[in-house]
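Let's sit down with a protein and look at its sequence and fold side by side. Please make up or recall a protein chain and show it to me in full. Label the sequence line and the structure token line clearly, so we can match residues to local backbone shapes. Go ahead whenever you are ready, and we will take it from there.
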Amino acid sequence: MTTARRPRWWLRVLLCALALLAFKLFEPVFAYHWGWREAPASTPLPPQVEAADPAYAQAISAARPLLVQLQQRLHLPGIAIAVGLDGREVWAYSRGYAELETLKPLSLDSQFRIGSTTKAFTSAAMAILVQAGKVDLDAPLQTYLPWFAPKEWPVTTRQVMSHSAGIRDYSLCLCFPIWEYYNRRHFASLREATAAVAAAPLEYRPGRDFRYTSPGYNLAGAVVEAVAQQDFLAYLDAAVIQPLQLAHTAADDALREMPGRVGFYEVTSDGYRRTFRVDNSNKWPSGGLLSTPRDLVRFGNGILDNRLYDAATRERFWTPQPLADGKDNGDDYALGWRVHRQREILGGRQRTDVVSHNGVATGATSRFALYPQQRLSISILTNAQLSTTKDLNALSNAVVDLFLAVPRPAQAEPVKLSAVPAR
């Protein structure tokens, strides 16, 4: 009788090493299957906090249940909203939890990831430099970024900001985990964070197509940094955040303890789990900010009131960018904003322009929209990662209708968008 030979020690070591390598490469997939917890009991009711203008009491009373219904239907840990009209906040409301594990309640100043809503901030920083004559949107990127590798065709800042530059989106990488989107590396500089896309070949001739790309948009932040001769985040703070007094808007820095930062979750009808831990230093200009609905409304009011740059510059950045053949880009995309012409409001009784930029981040979702003709701004944030923003869009539209139905005193001149493309 013979006994089976035991596997050699080196084979066992090799198998363990391969298993560890597979785990590190595909960690988000493995991690999704553990860490789930049962959702907190629905009673007592989740905490809520509110600041409201009594003139809009009727609209607020009708809007509040809409948020509650959406929170319950989507099992959101927390949801927060703010509405601004005529340059001031008229409602701010937060309901639910900043952290489910400890039942820490949301406050009106709780900081959420805003995902791609960040692009509107980078757009504002760029607009300031363009108005000052420091950036030519149609100059080759190498004018400002000499380290941007030469391509088969020229690439401009305008094309980068309108997602028509031919630059790739998130991809696989030689990193842990293997997906760039789930980055865990802390980048010391924006140049370092954009090095991979700067060196990569273009996927198509610039101007020929529209393909949304956050890694490509990061190059707009690199241009801001180069022209301002200042770290991107420092310039954003000095030029945009501080002038508008956005006290709770900052980079989502994984290396800093930030007491106001909420927990970020994936949720189902049965429970919740913390999302995969990421480091957003690979996307500061395109998706790396934290903010609050109140700060976002204050930001929107500042744009509408020309507090950062003039109306002509705003018009340039709010003009949807055609492709090289003159056709519409198919996404209503301007320069860091989406501009939807003549959308229905008030149950279809009126039409108006809507300027927006939503965001989906790891563990959070953002709706941010401006109604220039009505001088209204609205932001809705949640600390759950939704697959799309359609539910927040629908909620936003319903809330806007409620507030626009309230009679208002004579308002300042509405912001009108030109029907003629401006470049």
